[in-house]
Structure of Alpha-galactosidase:
Amino acid sequence: MSKEKNRKRCIAVFVLMGMLITLISRSAFAGNAPQLLVETKNSLLVFSIGGNGKLYQSYFGQKPGHATDYALLQSTRHEAYIGAGMGDLFEPAIRVIHADGNPSLDLVYVSHKTEKKGDDLSLTSIRLKDPKYPVEVLLHFAAYFKDDVIKTWTEIRHQEKKPLTLSNYASSMLHFEASKYWLSQFDGDYMTEMRMKESQLTTGIKVLDSKLGTRAHMYRAPAFFLSFNKPSDENNGELIAGTLAWSGNFQCTFEIDQQNSLRVINGMNPYASEYKLPAGKTFETPAFIFTYSNKGKGQASRNLHRWARQYEVLDGDQPRLTLLNNWEATHMDFNENVLVELFEGAKQLGVDLFLLDDGWFGNKYPRDGDKTALGDWQVDKKKLPSGLGHLVKEAGNRNLKFGIWLEPEMISPKSELYEQHPDWILKLPNREESYSRNQLVLDLINPKVQDFVFNLLNDLLTENPDIAFIKWDCNRMLTNTYSPFLKENQGNLFIDYTKSLYQVMERLRKKYPHLPIMLCAGGGGRVDYGGLKYFSEFWPSDNTDGLERVFIQWGYLNFFPSLTVSSHVTSMGKQSLKFRTDVAMMGKLGYDIRVKNLSPDEIRFSNAAVQTYKRISEVIWFGDLYRLVSPYEENRAVLMYVNEARNKAVLFSYLLNFRRKEYMGKVLLSGLDPDKRYKIKEINLLPDAVSTHPDNGKSYTGDYLMKVGLNLSPGKISPLSSAVFELVME
Ligand code: DGJ
């Protein structure tokens, strides 16, 4: 039989099966609609199959206490995953243009299966298909029972004659019915990342999105809280926290219809991305991750943190390295002697690792400024004549591990790489090159470029096997975007770029599964769970001013666990060294400072702080976070971490820029065992200082601390001061 005949026969069988399934669905499912359940400890997502064979989301929310009541959840008002071009008049989940030009997709239920993947995880996959066209869609729901987290994504495939054009392809569509909806979003810019804003949604569409390509989250994060009926606070309210695991362009859409129902669609941004999907290939969307809480935002964050540490973040259950980075201390102006001096400083601090930042490479065009050398990843022989091996050794002699900065996806127009491979660069034909930070982006979609990036890291790590840490930077977004490799399929570019990045990371992780790599994009321009599968931590912002960092880190900690939030003590900001250190300690502590400019007392303090941090970091990294007083509500921020056994806790209290005679009430602690006693000790004090805090050394029951609370600002208080307390069960 000819290929063409065979193909036609396949399509006919596919279509016939679809019609049959629709008929079976119609007859077998008359009366009570059959249900599909996705369950976690406290939440329930119910799908029903309607008499028309279509899949409906009948319920999502708090799980009823009696499973017998689930059968009452039968609503067929909201189709689960809506194809454009049929009856629905609001935002679709998916829009395709068939090979014959028909721009519609009708999806009917075909089958589903639920597999137990362990005690805590079950995976439900639901197959839908178009009865008239050979296109199928698979909806996946991974339910992480104990953490109340659901991870959902979609696969699309077809057997049409020509490539199918995909113009919308949501990872998830969810429907809600509440009287009011409140959205907390997180946005900003370079140096002002993750500012929290809350507003009530009104009829129409609210979109959070990015079109930046790389460094895609610089203006907005694909992460939000969505509260139902009334705004939630830390401990009260019904909400979901949601985030998209995708390092590229994203789109989170919230649409309230004429009946006050809300549909929430999350996925890759379809902007400039009409994707051509060849027959037989699977188009997989990134995952949308969400958690339900009816106990406020704090619970939602803790759910995500616990889940992320166990399942998503690279080595999320393993300790991190404290480090000294040289970027803010030297920028690109250093040589071997300066670095060795910095190693001495790192040794004085007592950190685990020295991280060499930008400026160590390039010979024909040395990297003395940001106009040259990206792509020429050979050590600068003038600056560092003895090579990297020498530096690794010198660091080792001081008991320090060594890490290094790279910006693998980028290229300087003044580089040997540019001279050798002008066709490896994303840029529009017939247009001027468009620079940002004087650089261009490599066409990572091209497999040769992927090899180049892989080999760059692989060679570096092979030649210097003791390199123990990488900082992977990405200092520009995409503009002037055109891939010479993709030719006529430019609509695939934004999506394939990010997929290519993940492919390179997959390859690297196969060979170097546990090497810590920091995700950085000129500050916090690229932070999401898609990336954190491959990266152990991220750089939240180039703004390291202690006061600003309280807000920035607070923002990220809503969605990401503390051991991923790199928080460095620098000389930026007018606050005391103690304040800046206390702020950095709430995340993953590091330094980016010229130690020789510190006084002997400051060095003593910092060294003791590092020791203290190492002692308490287990609670900070793996404990539960309780945000007690928000800097958005008062001129102070208070948060605490409690370990799983609830026998240790660490409390951070930061007084911000308050005004004269501003009264600060007692703070109610959280997460403790009410029936146990905890001894309170102020820690991280200046050298030779003794705590003057009236509760220092005292013991209270957890019940007292959570109901009566502590006065954290007794006596005369000063703005921009801070205190850290350790609580140990007696
Ligand atoms: C931007 C990063 O955020 C900084 O920490 C530093 O690594 C510079 N890039 C180096 O160019």
Summary: Residues 10-31 have pLDDT under 50 and may be disordered. The radius of gyration is 27 Å.
